[in-house]
Amino acid sequence: MWRQAIAALALIGAVGAALALDYRSVEVPAAILYDSPSQKGKKLYLIRAQTPVEVVVRVEGWFKVRDAEGSMAWIEAQALGERRTLMVIAQLAEIRQFPKPDAPVVGELDKWVLVDFLEAATPGWVKVRHRDGVTGYVRSTQVWGL
Question: SH3b domain: which residues (predicted)?
Fold first, then answer.
């Protein structure tokens, strides 16, 4: 019975690792998103530099990605980098000095603003840096790309 329980826990751990989300950011000034993994596919739209996307499928030279609005499309793998950015999805997100709701506010971010992901903080918070240099913590529910 113990062996079955240990095996079940190992399986759950393996499934959890397999389901780990892979977020990347667009590295080129603008990238074309296609309906299929080919430059001959239908061009759907452009995505700007630093925009985070979730990699859903990998095919040689191509990634099928999901954006912050849930749209899925194909992008050439070379257009994405390892750098992590986050996109504000709340109407207004406050950057706080510490990962606490009563910490001093050091900046405000409007919806769709991009910030650099620095590190995960205490549960519910993430450390970010805005392009103007402001660094602090935002609620993880206010950004997309984690």
Answer: 83-146
Q: For residue 100, what are the CA distances in angstroms to 5, 123, 125?
A: 38, 10, 8
- Contact between 42 and 34 (Cβ < 8 Å): yes
Contacting residues for 112 by C-beta, under 8 A, at least 6 apart: 87, 88
As averages over each run of 10 residues, the pLDDT of the chain (146 residues) reads: 45 43 93 96 95 96 95 96 94 97 97 95 94 96 95
**What per-residue confidence (pLDDT) applies to 14?**
40
Contact 112, 87 (CB under 8 A): yes
Round to whole Å and give the CA distance between 92 and 143: 10
With contact defined as beta carbons under 8 Å apart, do 47 and 53 qualify? yes
Q: Structure tokens of 102?
A: 């009563």
DSSP state for residue 17 in the 8-state scheme: H
pLDDT of amino acid 6: 45
Domains of the chain: 20-81 (2.30.30.40), 85-144 (2.30.30.40)
